[in-house]
């Protein structure tokens, strides 16, 4: 009888372990192929996204349609916004990576910004009226943080093929393409670094909402 009970317990534990491994693998596949979750670490995209928000990011939106002006994108900033060798050691990196995977701590290599320039665009700040110009046309940016100017820094860039010009909605505090002017790459981010598009917030519960796409139109 005791032997039967021990076998039953072993089978029970094996089933639990198998179930946990199966769920983990399924979740990993989903997050690497379709939908991932990211933690918002800063104020740079206020009022759309607040510090501490968790967002679901679609990895497939740009597979069927190109990235367009106005899209909010999540991207890997290594090699542009952050150094490629920004590790903390194997053990610490593993612990941080686990927290990032669970969406509990920010990933300092991952950024969320808005696309203001795609290939062929000339983006300039600012027009006589103080607005951002795209291809010579001043645009009104309804998503800007209240009280922020389009940019305190004057610039003019033309976006080459395969690159994007990105800016945060809270312009006064955002580290974005403007911050990298004069650096290698000139603040332009490769489209290959884009992970996906945030499409809904999932935490805190009181802030769950779908993030609509805002088209920024210019000739």
From TrEMBL:
It catalyses: Cleavage of hydrophobic, N-terminal signal or leader sequences from secreted and periplasmic proteins. It is a single-pass type II membrane protein. Its EC number is 3.4.21.89. The active site is at 44, 113. Keywords: Hydrolase, Protease. GO terms for cellular component: plasma membrane. Pfam families: Peptidase_S26. It is found in: Cell membrane; Membrane. Transmembrane segments: none annotated. Signal peptide: none annotated. Its main location: membrane. InterPro entries: LexA/Signal_pep-like_sf, Pept_S26A_signal_pept_1, Peptidase_S26. Residues 16-203 form the Peptidase S26 domain. It comes from the Bacteria. One of its GO terms (molecular function) is signal peptidase activity. GO terms for biological process: signal peptide processing. SUPFAM superfamilies: LexA/Signal peptidase. Belongs to the peptidase S26 family. This is Signal peptidase I. It comes from Arthrobacter alpinus.
